[in-house]
Amino acid sequence: MKSACELITVVIPVYNRESIVASTLDSVAIQTPAPRLIVVDNASTDGSLKTVKEWAERHSSTRFPVTVTVETAKGAAAARQKGLQMVDTPFVLFFDSDDIMLPGHIDRLVRAIEHYPGIDIFGWDIHAMELDGRRSTYPFSDRNIAFRHIFNGIFSTQRYAASTELIRSVGGWDPTVLGWDDYELGVRLICSSPQVKYLPGTPTVAMKRLADSITGTDFASGAEKWEYAMDLCRRTLSDHGNGQLVRWLDLKLAVLAGLYRRENAHREASRLLKRIMDRETSAWRRTILAMAFHYTAVGGRGIHHILRPIL
User: Are the C-beta atoms of 106 and 22 separated by less than 8 Å?
Assistant: First the structure.
């Protein structure tokens, strides 16, 4: 039977997290059994690289191998791809430098890998602390994964581990995607028809949203990044001939435009909505997209559940 560090590599990109990265790394180090760890500094301008190197010198061992490297190309996707290139274990788990891995997380994953041979992706629920202090749970599911990912982003980095071979087979991380890179990769994973297994139980990952994270505190200020990722997703789905998923993605874009409007970014909202409407030839679906936009703009949530039966 392989040890955890022979089965699983955790890849963590780091950018300007000098004051908090050690807490994330400590949460990986206390895992029993311990995985392999690769930390990729993404050209930090603070003392993150020094902090990580000193931490690695104290913690790396044959039981817990730690590698520290640097990626100078901008963006988490570039850093994650650099880490992926160095992985030599069957499974890889991408993690963020401001999240916490609770005790038992790796043990649960090792047991699942041993118990369910042939599974490509193992996913789990996570705890989250929002910017306003609210606590919530983000659920994973191994049913209706395309619908759930398009509208709920279930393949965000903290929520699953995947076969290294699978990640590489779909092209890995796209360094040109500077926001929602995990969403974009998730769409490519869906199109590969993976075998997915949900691991139920109390969440063993705690995510904390920070104002200076990639996603930031609003949608409109990052419009170019999100829409670029969504354009790539739409192209992927179109190339795979799945018109249903393309329609769902356009509904997601209508919701995004509604979120711009909710943030009083009227120009961005009108621009995106017009773009969606201009390429929709069905008057009926144009009505549905407009409904989703206005419902979201006034504070409505979950329009995808309401409209799913008629899309």
Answer: no
What local confidence, expressed as pLDDT, does residue 22 receive? Answer: 97
Task: Map out the domains of the chain as residue ranges.
Answer: 4-208, 220-310
Q: What is the reported pTM? A: 0.94
User: Tens of pLDDT along 152-187?
Assistant: 999 999 999 999 999 999 999 999 999 999 999 999
SS3 letters for the chain? CCCHHHHEEEEEEECCCCCCHHHHHHHHHCCCCCCEEEEEECCCCCCHHHHHHHHHHHHCCCCCCEEEEECCCCCHHHHHHHHHHHCCCCEEEECCCCCEECCCHHHHHHHHHHHCCCCCEEECCEEEECCCCCEEEECCCCCCHHHHHHHHCCCCHHHEEEEHHHHHHCCCCCCCCCCCHHHHHHHHHHHCCCCEEECCCCCCEEEECCCCCCCCCCCHHHHHHHHHHHHHHHHHHHHCCCHHHHHHHHHHHHHHHHHHHHCCCHHHHHHHHHHHHHCCCCHHHHHHHHHHHHHHHCCCCCHHHHHHHHC
The residue among 3 and 234 whose pLDDT is bigger is 234
Lowest mean pLDDT: which of 161-175, 224-238, 294-308? 294-308
Note the CATH architecture for domain 4-208.
Alpha-Beta Complex (3.90)
pLDDT at 257: 98
Cα–Cα dist 198/125, whole Å = 9
